[in-house]
């Protein structure tokens, strides 16, 4: 009788070449994720109040974590600014999508988004994007693309409904939003939000049809804004 030797089976823990199979990276612990979010939230608030050069010690204190915890998540200022910018963009995009989904009136959807973007402190992005900050990081480009697409959709919908004047473009909205919501670091202006929303409402009234005047210059498009960045 011929005896056939069995082929050795391949263990799940070994690869085809005999090496150990790579293990999946461990998921961050829930408390680590909470600490990271607290740091980003505190940094966003303090960057608005005092500018992006606020001391890390103060950010850690506001977040309720130790300095070691902050540096473990964000080894340098650029890493923290990067995460804050991503957070602001992502949250603002979600506000645009919510307005589009929940508002039946096209101009009301645009109005709701504009005020919500102010609450997300989108005007604080400009000072954060200065200096050596990597504005062309793939994550940032992808998130900016999502934001631009969501806002453009709101803008196009309002114009198609005849509620938004035709001599403006989405860049006009974003520039106005940035200028009217950009805080002066360290100014500690009392009731700042009250003035922001009041002036945004005046700005939005100027965007609605019928147009009450002829605008000088040309409409600002997203392409115009990208060339300026």
From TrEMBL:
Pfam families: TetR_C_43, TetR_N. The keyword DNA-binding applies. Keywords: DNA-binding, Transcription, Transcription regulation. Residues 1-33 are annotated as: Disordered. The keyword Repressor does not apply. Residues 1-22 have a biased composition (Low complexity). Residues 55-74 bind DNA. Residues 33-92 form the HTH tetR-type domain. PANTHER family: HTH-TYPE TRANSCRIPTIONAL REGULATOR BETI (PTHR30055:SF234), HTH-TYPE TRANSCRIPTIONAL REGULATOR RUTR (PTHR30055). This is TetR/AcrR family transcriptional regulator. It comes from Streptomyces gobitricini.
């Amino acid at each position: 009788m011929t005896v056939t030797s069995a082929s050795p089976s391949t263990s799940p823990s070994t690869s085809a070449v005999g090496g150990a199979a790579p293990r999946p990276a461990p998921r961050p612990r829930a408390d680590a994720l909470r600490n990271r979010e607290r740091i980003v939230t505190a940094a966003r608030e303090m960057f608005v109040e005092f500018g992006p050069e606020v001391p890390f010690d103060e950010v850690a204190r506001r977040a309720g974590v130790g300095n070691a915890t902050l540096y473990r998540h964000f080894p340098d200022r650029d890493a923290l600014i990067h995460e804050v910018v991503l957070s602001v963009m992502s949250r603002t995009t979600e506000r645009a999508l919510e307005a589009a989904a929940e508002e039946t009136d096209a101009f009301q959807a645009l109005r709701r988004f504009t005020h919500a973007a102010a609450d997300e402190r989108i005007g604080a992005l400009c000072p954060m994007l200065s200096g050596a900050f990597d504005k062309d990081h793939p994550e940032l480009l992808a998130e900016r693309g999502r934001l631009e697409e969501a806002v453009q959709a709101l803008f196009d919908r309002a114009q198609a409904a005849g509620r938004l004047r035709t001599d403006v473009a989405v860049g006009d909205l974003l520039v106005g939003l940035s200028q009217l919501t950009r805080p002066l670091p360290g100014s500690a202006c009392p009731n700042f939000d009250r003035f922001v929303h009041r002036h945004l409402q005046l700005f939005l009234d100027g965007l609605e049809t019928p147009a009450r005047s002829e605008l000088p210059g040309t409409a600002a498009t997203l392409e115009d804004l990208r060339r300026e960045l």
